[in-house]
Design a protein that fits this description.
With 185 residues, the protein is α+β, with helices and mostly antiparallel strands. The chain has 3 helices and 9 strands; from the N terminus they run ααββββββββαβ. It has one domain: L,D-transpeptidase catalytic domain-like (Beta Barrel). The strands form 2 sheets. It has a 5-stranded mixed beta sheet. A hairpin with a 4-residue loop joins strand 1 and strand 2. It comes from Streptomyces prasinosporus.
Length: 185
């Protein structure tokens, strides 16, 4: 019986080591892919680098087939958001850091907003703009009050799409209840 117990312990230890290595690798990959503007909060609420300077060039156009009219465009593949005005021009674009649950590509509407709450990862967030729900997990844009990007565990179900505080303030002004949100692959 001792040989079986020793073999079982070795198998469990090996599986545990492999699982820890996998989680470490996934954590590293996630941290490397965090957009630069989310790695450090902007000091004193200074304008984000993604905001076009007055009289400067306009931000890049949103992806093709991302709808028409006034809308928020969220690209799952690029982890990027565009705030598009009535003339089709982009008023602002910025990188985001998604949670662990993504909405399906499609067209949504802003359904609720909260000035300040605690996110599903336990971090205080502000300027929360919700537009979807997947399996009971609310999906929405928000900015961490401390400027951090999410670092949820692999099993956590989080729907917060994090943006910088400056980008969160711009989203808050733009994405009122009923505003169209187009999610593209």
């Amino acid at each position: 019986m001792t040989a079986v117990a020793g073999t079982s312990s070795a198998v469990v230890a090996g599986l545990t080591a492999a699982a820890l290595a996998t989680v470490g690798l996934l954590g590293h990959q996630a941290s490397v892919n965090v957009p630069a503007e989310l790695r450090r909060p902007s000091a004193g609420g200074a304008p984000a680098a993604s905001e076009a300077p007055p009289g400067g060039p306009r931000p890049a156009a949103p992806p093709d087939r991302s709808g028409r009219g006034v809308r928020v465009v969220y690209s799952l593949g690029d982890d990027r958001v565009w705030l598009v005005g009535g003339d089709g021009g982009v008023g602002r674009t910025f990188g985001v850091s998604p949670g662990t649950v993504d909405p399906a590509p499609g067209t949504y509407r802003v359904t609720s907003r909260s000035k300040r709450v605690t996110g599903s990862d336990g971090v205080p967030v502000e300027h929360v703009v919700r537009f979807a729900s997947v399996g009971g997990t609310a999906i929405g844009f928000s900015a961490a009050v401390d400027g951090s990007a999410p670092a949820p565990g692999p099993k956590a179900r989080t729907g917060g799409v994090r943006e910088t505080r400056a980008d969160g303030a711009a989203m808050w002004r733009f994405a009122t209840i009923g505003r169209t949100v187009v999610v593209v692959p």
